[in-house]
Every structure is written in structure tokens, then in C-alpha cells.
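haha ok so turns out i had the wrong file open the whole time. this is the CORRECT one, sorry everyone. sequence first:
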Amino acid sequence: MGNKYYITTAFAELGQFLSQFTTKGIEKKENVLHNDLFFDGFKHQIKLAKEHNGWFTENNILFALEGWANLLTENNLKQWLLSYNLNEVKPKKVAIIMAGNIPLVGFHDFLSVLITGHDVLVKQSSNDKHLLPFLAKYLEYVSPELKGKITFTEDKLQDFDAVIATGSNNTARYFEYYFKNKPSIIRQNRNSVAVLTGDETEDQLNALSEDIFRYYGLGCRNVSKLFVPKDYNFDSFFNVMYKWHPIIEEAKYANNYDYNKAVYLMSEFDMLENGFLMIKEDQSYASPIATVFYEYYDSLEQLQSKLNIDKDLIQCVVSKGLTENDVDFGMTQKPQLWDYADDINTIEFLLKI
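then structure:
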């Protein structure tokens, strides 16, 4: 790890700090560095994030924080970086344009830039602006060497050497043009799919419900489409999904559900629904909120080839061994540090710039 060791340690300490904020509740622990200075302040930032963005419920924010607490351990970080030589890195300034669809969605890029020894210039989404600057401040307290290496801006990006930008397919075209003279990773819309055979256990379908409903389905790792065999019976699918029915009591979700249902009914589309989730046969991958698309397949071989052709549209495939990198049921929103968005290895990119 060489001279970057202090950064790894800082992030491991951040993991300890975040471990106080879990979906089971928020509980102050002993022996967390600078806790008296930061614990109450971070509780306040969570409250602000929640008030600012109706999709960021406390449970979803805590789910994201818990995920990062589990990942940011000394062992995990070392395992992730084991095969890279970080000592040769000449620090450059890397700009990150972050999305704001789920809490801390740009954190992996932020971590990757700093842990490879570069300086980071962050442009956040207005939807997700309360959590990361506070955590950056915590990192600077743990490792004062990081001071000056982290900058946040709301202005036009200037004076940087490379860029990682995440946006919609439209903004991606703009990014590609705008950053054409800089080394870049430009990410566009992707969606995740699940392949069902009809032999799934109740536990697997139960886990799949987490892949569908977590973050209201707003993440690119959320399952927005199912591939099912001909004559698939959706009864057991709907039975298992039912435990999520309280989601319809949340206003933003309910509004989207009502709106999309009205559109489908007026267009006389066929769809099945259970009062809080609609499923509709559709070739597309990106389904609206409260809707999951489905498509029939004739054979798994044929489907394999289709998924391969469409791989640039797909973030995760949930299946039982159908694709090389398939994701287990229930695990789409629990990636490892070495699971890269769009399958582009951010660390390799950062070591080459």
C-alpha cells in the first residue's frame, strides 16, 4: 500500500463511524474516532437529506450507509487493491459528476479517486448533496493529509485532468462532447434484469423483491425487468411481493403508481397489478416507478445471446448461473468494492491517466 496507507486507514475509520447508522437503528458506539464532533452532526445531515428529497427515506439512507460500513473495512480495502501498484501514481485532479438517484450513489467513484492517490473535484447532484461533504470533512479530521485533496463545487468544472461523469443517455452525449479532450468514464442509463425459470424458491422470490423495491427501484442496479418462460404463472411472484404493500402509503410512490396506471389504462395496455405494483409485457429495459416489465423467452440459450447483445443496456443480471457475472437474488444493491458500474474498472482507469 506504500504511501497511500493513510488513505486506506481513513476510509476504514469512516467505515467504523458509519457502522453506528444501520437499518436496525442509530446507536452511538464507544471508540469511534472524533465521534463527539461528528455523530450528532451526521444525524442532522440525514434529517436534512430526508427533508430535501422525498425519495430518500430514513430507511433507504440507512440501508446505503450500512452497505458502506460493511464494505469499508481494512481487510476489504486491502483485498480490493492487492493487485495494483499505487506507489507510482502521480496525483492528478479528477472531476466527478455525480448522479442523485439513490443516497451516496457517487461514493464509489469518490473512494476510488482518493484511494489511488489522486485529488478529487466533486460536482454533486442537487438531489443528494447533504451526506458526502460531511463524510469528507470526517475523513479530513481522521487524516489531515487529505486536506486540500477534496474539493466540492457547484460551478462549472475547471482545472482538472480527467473526469468520471454519470447521467442520463441525453447528458451522456453532452458529456462526451464536452469532455472529448480529457480521459473520461461516461456512464449512461442502465437497468438490471432477473431471469426466472418458474423453479424459484419462495426465499429466492423474497430476495428478488428487495432487488425490485429497494430505493423504490430508482437505482441502475434495481431489477426493472423480468425474463420469464412461456406460460409463466405470476401468482407465486405476486404472493411474495405482497409484503411490500405498505410502500403505497408513501406519497411520491403512490403518485407515480396512480399516474402510470392511468396511462396504461387509457392506452388499453394489458397489465397485471396488485394495488402497488404493475407488471407489463414490454421489450424495453427501463420501466417507470411502480412498474416492472416482463418479456417471455423461448430458450435460455436464446436469452443468453440476447442479454449479450444488449449488455450495454444492462447493469446486473439476477439469475441462477445463466451469465458469467450473474448476481444472486437479493444482492443487486449490495455490490462489493470490486463490482464496477458498467463493468468499467475505475481503479485501472485511474492508474492510467
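The first strand starts at residue 21 and ends at 22.
again sry for the mixup
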